[in-house]
Design goal:
single chain, 285 residues, mainly alpha, two-stranded antiparallel sheet
Length: 285
């Protein structure tokens, strides 16, 4: 076992909107147009928040902060950042199902990054020093030992993070009710109307998923970088969090509330509607 040198990381922290969908994808084309028109401020906020994190990652890459905590944290932070960017692109194209999967993953990655920060990267250092990255000469292969790692503790300790993970998980997993809501939302007691590859604009789903992204951004700056040997959050982060919180507090926004039903806590979606002019409904999961 030898001491590992932490090399300068390569950082690409630029974020941008999804490209315009091809004209022969009518659902995605309309979703892109309506998302821009109805929820353009939310989209711009998400992009701005990701750009702020990209600037911070660039600062963390400086020689002064080239340490194990930085190296350990940058990995899951990068994966979560990319997952949020791709979730935004999925929302812009009307793919709310994929957005939920990506948001759930992003919350998991953010929890892992926070765990490394708060522990001083203790477990990561043990993995690295134990030849986590090495060689398997008998197989003529480079070796990256898997070392399964999740931080349920961080998800539990940071309520804002855990709540997004819980809500997104209900939509990301193949639960019957969530699958019906995502692929057959126009169904009722008289008929079941299934779809395949539906990417039509849905205001409720767009608000809900964009709200998850804003909440993850706020949760990030609430704990990052904490007491870790990394640069302080960029100057604009606090102002961004205030504006994101204002957007989330809008009374007519689609959101999830928790209610008790026959002794069981369940999710109640309020302000559910397909288009701005549609009547608002409630959905009990």
């Amino acid at each position: 076992m030898s001491a590992r040198r932490i090399s300068p990381p390569r950082v690409n922290g630029r974020a941008a909107r999804a490209p315009r969908p091809p004209a022969d994808l009518p659902g995605s084309s309309d979703a892109y147009r309506q998302t821009s028109f109805v929820l353009g401020e939310d989209v711009a906020l998400v992009i701005e928040g990701l750009e702020l994190e990209g600037q911070h990652a660039e600062a963390c890459a400086g020689a002064k902060y080239r340490n194990r905590v930085m190296a350990a944290t940058l990995g899951p932070w990068s994966r979560g950042w990319l997952a949020r960017l791709q979730a935004l692109h999925a929302i812009e194209w009307g793919d709310y199902s994929s957005a939920a999967v990506l948001v759930r993953a992003a919350a998991d990655f953010e929890a892992a990054a926070l765990s490394h920060l708060q522990s001083g990267a203790e477990e990561w250092s043990g993995w690295l020093d134990g030849d986590g990255v090495g060689e398997a000469p008998d197989l003529h292969a480079a070796e990256f030992r898997l070392h399964p790692f999740r931080s349920a503790e961080s998800l539990a300790r940071v309520p804002a993070l855990g709540e997004v993970y819980r809500e997104a998980s209900d939509f990301a997993l193949p639960h019957l009710g969530a699958t019906a809501l995502l692929t057959a939302s126009d169904s009722n007691r008289e008929r079941y109307l299934a779809t395949f590859g539906d990417r039509d604009f849905h205001l409720g789903l767009a608000e809900l998923t964009l709200g998850w992204l804003l909440r993850l951004g706020i949760a990030h700056w609430d704990r990052f970088p904490g007491e870790a040997p990394l640069p302080a959050a960029p100057e604009g982060a606090a102002a961004w969090c205030r504006r994101a919180a204002t957007a989330l507090a809008r009374r007519d926004r689609c959101r999830i509330e928790r209610v008790e039903r026959e002794g069981v806590e369940r999710a109640l979606i309020v302000n559910w509607r397909r288009e701005p002019r549609s009547a608002m409904k409630r959905i009990l999961l």
